[in-house]
């Protein structure tokens, strides 16, 4: 009998129009036909309801698009659409503030969030199929009854949250203000795309309650929305539920779509933006055709040819050959009013933006004058097609349901996917050349140079005091008493998590297989059970350096040849390393998997470590280390690692290691690490996707049986040497926020306390509705988000509470964190909180196996950590058995405040007095590489 994927599985292609590629397909099959079988109904009040039935997992994605974004904002209210997105989570008439998050997470919801782009605002959840009605109840109350309880306190709180988000994602993020300047330069100030999505502090803070009410009334009626429900549903029953919850809502006035003329750029515009960065970066932007209009697909292909990975022109020329750039990216960003084509390139240390711009201009001129080759276009099309199909592996988040909503809004055709693929396949070399000539001329662009310097931030206006009290206002829709009670869950779906199906090759290689015929896709991961833990004491980062070298040349293929072959297959090849393991992974269409696995085998078994490539990778890693110093949260992570484990422990560093170790690593060091650890007895090939066990066994024998048997070199890190300091500080003068970590060494992956720790952590800081995040974000507005997690290694890994907070509340934030830790230790959780935390872990497990890559990652953990084959099958019962006392005991055992180290990365002059008041003792000062500063 064939192993089943997870639950009662039926192929996604039943929802997508039948099988795309048969098991016995020829080597070069016809292009896949992928039709989304949807049902669209428009309710009398105008709400568009789109249903896609897909029974591969017992989960359902609910995705609502309101057809409003910055394109609809009034002058002087930039960022308002995004602010309003946050307001929709503030509480409604029948669902008090915070209750929706608590109920949904307790029901096993994942991917629960909202987002705003220029043309739309969406809200989405993925829930177990028996909790669909709960999700509809929540979303319906937001649409129908937000105004009934909207008050100034809710608005002020979300203004704080959004402004924290702006500080974190733009002002405290390297190149954030540089990219924002691109939009300011491409568009005139009165254009709705001018302010990007976030808007300014002044405009966010100037929003009034009356503005919020007017915006909701104008744009959040059912006739300006569409809801996609995709997953394990019965269409008739689901439509009846939508009618029940949404059908009685009143229409809003017809929405007038914006009539905006985007003035063309007729002369190159240039701006220089100083930023708190070490490496300069240039952004080039052009105005291009709107989404799905002529030229849009051609420019998407052009972006892939220019900067779509290691086979692209800019990578080969600027990064690989000339080594003047650290990275290069290009994208066609498709929107309704106009699109933007953006290239961004970061200079390597010692090189200038003038060199970068000249090199980019040379490549653009060549494309305009001579066009791309047919092979380049084919590689780009293949890669984009695989990416599009991979995108619908997930039902929720940015997956299938969201794509269906996008097609519906932009084209009025929810099932446009097959036409989209055909549109892509029609693009030829001459089409790409014509698009480059028509749209990417030097005189029609904006050029933004981000250079090291003092940030010039917009005014961060002070928030006025919040007036307490509720405001009773008239709602839009008639109240209905039954809406006050959350609906009960339906019958629980059958929960059958996977059991590893493993076999061994004669050379000792373990092969783990999971058959998943949902899409014609396969993901493979060769995992080696040696990572940073195997680094010599004097060579931090060696495992990562070795892994990065694997695809930089083999005995028979050069680095560029490997990149070109991967792209020609439309595949993705990746090498990496973490604390306990190293990886080589590939992802491809089923029809290309044999060739993709051949590439994986070649780079893993036959790496050549060419001297020239070692030097290229060395230069790249040194520049990456420079970039890491610009990211406050990354700096906090490496400083925390150094403080917890010490300089003699392999976990005491970040993935890259140190500058000294990178500079001194030799080819012989890298080759030696590979020879010692990349052996079959220390490795497993984990494959998930549309491939049978027999097919996989034949391929594994053909590609990997020749790997010579050898003994694995054992490695175990020594004892940590945690700093005696309670407070570690890294000074970032002028930082817009403080990146915080409160951390301690905790538990290993094999601990029997694992279920209790995960349940406890869910309530403390693991969930959005957790105590820490609710306190610092929702109640006090100190942070955009503060969360906690355990990292379980083969030896005890760190527990961390991490996030960024306003500079002026750094001390109070740390104080509140310790209060929440103390409260978790002091008393057992109440029954409702415990049930919610427990259920959130149990009921969200299916989503862990939603994509082939996530399935492979989960099954790889069984090998890396020596877990039993039926581990995931047993895990739900282990979670369910956790008691309040066990969770409290776990908190007392592992969360000892006196052993916790506070790491603060921010403006020392402003945060030191606040932290001194906490009496944590004298701070230990570290640099941006996480290493102690010499007194």
From TrEMBL:
It comes from Massilia agilis. The keyword Manganese does not apply. Keywords: Signal. Residues 1-22 form the signal peptide. This is Insulinase family protein. Residues 209-383, 665-839 form the Peptidase M16 C-terminal domain. It holds the Pfam family Peptidase_M16. Residues 49-189, 511-636 form the Peptidase M16 N-terminal domain. Residues 463-473 have a biased composition (Low complexity). Residues 454-473 are annotated as: Disordered.
């Amino acid at each position: 009998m064939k192993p089943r994927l997870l639950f009662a599985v039926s192929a996604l292609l039943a929802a997508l129009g039948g099988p795309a590629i048969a098991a016995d397909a020829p080597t070069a099959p016809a292009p896949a036909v992928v039709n989304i079988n949807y049902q669209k109904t428009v309710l009398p009040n105008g709400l568009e309801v789109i249903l896609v039935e897909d029974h591969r997992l017992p989960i359902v994605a609910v995705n609502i698009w309101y057809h409003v974004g910055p394109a609809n904002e009034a002058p002087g209210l930039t960022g308002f659409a995004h602010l309003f997105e946050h307001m929709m989570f503030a509480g409604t008439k029948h669902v008090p503030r915070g209750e929706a998050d608590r109920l949904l997470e307790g029901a096993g919801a994942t991917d629960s969030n909202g987002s705003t782009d220029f043309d739309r605002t969406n809200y989405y959840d993925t829930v177990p199929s028996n909790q669909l009605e709960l999700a509809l109840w929540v979303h319906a109350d937001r649409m129908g009854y937000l105004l009934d309880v909207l008050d100034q306190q809710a608005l002020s709180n979300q203004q704080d949250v959004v402004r924290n988000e702006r500080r974190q994602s733009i002002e405290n993020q390297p190149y954030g203000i540089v990219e924002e300047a691109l939009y300011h330069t491409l568009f005139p100030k009165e254009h709705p795309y001018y302010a990007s999505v976030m808007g300014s502090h002044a405009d966010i803070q100037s929003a009034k309650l009356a503005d919020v009410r007017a915006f909701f009334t104008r744009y959040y009626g059912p006739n300006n929305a569409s809801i996609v429900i995709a997953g394990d549903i019965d269409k008739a029953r689901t439509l009846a539920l939508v009618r029940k919850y949404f059908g009685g809502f009143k229409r809003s006035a017809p929405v007038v779509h914006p009539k905006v003329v985007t003035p063309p750029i007729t002369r190159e515009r240039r701006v220089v933006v100083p930023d708190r960065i070490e490496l300069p970066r240039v952004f080039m932007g052009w105005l291009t055709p709107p989404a799905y209009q002529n030229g849009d697909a051609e420019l998407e292909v052009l972006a892939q040819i220019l900067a779509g990975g290691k086979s692209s022109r800019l990578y080969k020329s600027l990064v690989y050959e000339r080594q003047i750039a650290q990275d290069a990216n290009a994208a066609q960003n498709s929107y309704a009013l106009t699109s933007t084509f953006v290239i961004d390139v970061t200079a390597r240390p010692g090189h200038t933006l003038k060199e970068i711009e000249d090199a980019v201009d040379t490549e653009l001129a060549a494309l305009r004058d001579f066009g791309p080759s047919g092979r380049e276009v084919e590689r780009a099309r293949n890669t984009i097609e695989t990416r599009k199909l991979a995108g619908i592996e997930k039902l929720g988040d940015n997956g299938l349901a969201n794509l269906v909503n996008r097609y519906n809004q932009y084209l009025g055709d929810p099932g446009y996917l097959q036409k989209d693929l055909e549109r892509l396949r029609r693009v030829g070399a001459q089409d790409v050349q014509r698009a480059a000539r028509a749209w990417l001329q030097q005189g029609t662009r904006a050029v933004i140079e981000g250079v090291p310097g003092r940030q010039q931030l917009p005014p961060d206006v002070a928030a006025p005091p919040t007036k307490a009290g509720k405001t009773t206002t008239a709602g839009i829709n008639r109240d209905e008493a039954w809406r006050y009670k959350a609906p009960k869950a339906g019958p629980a779906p059958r929960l059958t998590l996977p059991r590893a199906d493993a076999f061994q090759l004669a050379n000792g290689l373990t092969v783990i297989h999971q058959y998943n015929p949902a899409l014609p896709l396969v993901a493979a991961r060769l995992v080696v059970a040696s990572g940073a833990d195997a680094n010599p004491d004097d060579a931090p980062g060696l495992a990562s350096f070795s892994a990065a070298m694997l695809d930089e040349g083999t005995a028979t293929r050069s680095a560029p040849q490997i990149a070109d072959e991967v792209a020609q297959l439309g595949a993705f090849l990746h090498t990496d390393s973490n604390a306990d393991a190293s990886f080589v992974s590939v992802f491809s269409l089923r029809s290309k998997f044999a060739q993709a696995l051949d590439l994986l085998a070649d780079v893993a078994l036959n790496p050549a470590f060419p001297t020239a490539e070692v030097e290229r990778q060395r230069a790249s890693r040194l520049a990456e280390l420079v970039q890491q110093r610009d990211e406050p949260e990354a700096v906090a992570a490496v400083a925390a690692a150094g403080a917890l484990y010490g300089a003699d422990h392999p976990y005491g560093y970040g993935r890259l290691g140190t500058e000294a170790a990178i500079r001194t690593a030799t080819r012989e060091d890298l080759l030696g690490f590979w020879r010692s650890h990349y052996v079959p007895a220390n490795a497993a090939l984990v494959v998930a996707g549309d491939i049978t066990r027999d097919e996989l066994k034949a391929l594994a024998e053909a590609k990997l049986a020749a790997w010579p048997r050898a003994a694995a070199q054992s490695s175990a890190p020594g004892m940590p040497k945690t700093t005696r300091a309670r407070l570690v500080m890294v000074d970032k003068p002028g930082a817009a926020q403080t990146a915080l970590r409160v951390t301690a060494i905790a538990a290993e992956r094999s601990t029997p306390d694992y279920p209790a720790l995960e349940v406890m952590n869910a309530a403390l800081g693991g969930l959005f509705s957790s105590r820490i995040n609710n306190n610092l974000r929702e109640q006090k507005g100190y942070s955009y988000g503060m969360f906690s997690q355990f990292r379980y290694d083969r030896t005890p890994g760190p527990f961390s509470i991490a996030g960024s907070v306003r500079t002026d509340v750094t001390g109070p934030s740390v104080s509140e964190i310790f209060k929440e830790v103390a409260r978790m230790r002091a008393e057992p959780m109440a029954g409702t909180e415990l049930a919610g935390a427990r259920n959130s872990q149990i009921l969200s497990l299916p989503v862990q196996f939603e994509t082939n890559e996530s399935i492979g990652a989960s099954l790889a953990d069984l090998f890396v950590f020596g877990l039993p084959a039926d581990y995931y099958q047993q895990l739900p019962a282990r979670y369910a058995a956790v008691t309040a006392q066990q969770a409290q005991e776990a908190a007392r055992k592992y969360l000892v405040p006196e052993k916790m180290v506070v790491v603060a990365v921010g403006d020392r002059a402003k945060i030191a007095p606040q932290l001194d008041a906490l009496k944590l003792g004298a701070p230990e000062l570290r640099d941006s590489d996480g290493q102690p500063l010499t007194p």
